[in-house]
Amino acid sequence: MDNISEFDIKLEKEVYYAGETIRGHVILHTSENFKLRSMRLAVRGQAHAEWKVLVSGERRNVKDDQYFVDERTVVWGQESSEGPIPILPRGKHQFPFAFQLPESALPCSFESRTGYIRYYVKATVDRPYASPPQGLKYFTLLGPHIDCMDEQYLKPVLGREVRTSCCFCCRRNPVELSAQLERSAYVCGESIKLRASIDNRGLEKAWLHVRLTQVGLLAAGRRAPSTAARLSARACLQYVEFFLERGVLGTSREIQKVVMEYKGEPVPSGSAVKWDSSRKMVLPCCPPTLVGVCRLIKIYYVLKVSVQLEKSGEDMQMHFPITVATVPFRIPNLTHQPQIRYETATERVEGGCYVGPEFLLGQVYDGSEVLTSQPPLVLYRPVYVCIAAEKKPAPAAGQAQSRP
Question: Taking the model in full, what pTM does it have?
Answer without folding.
Answer: 0.84
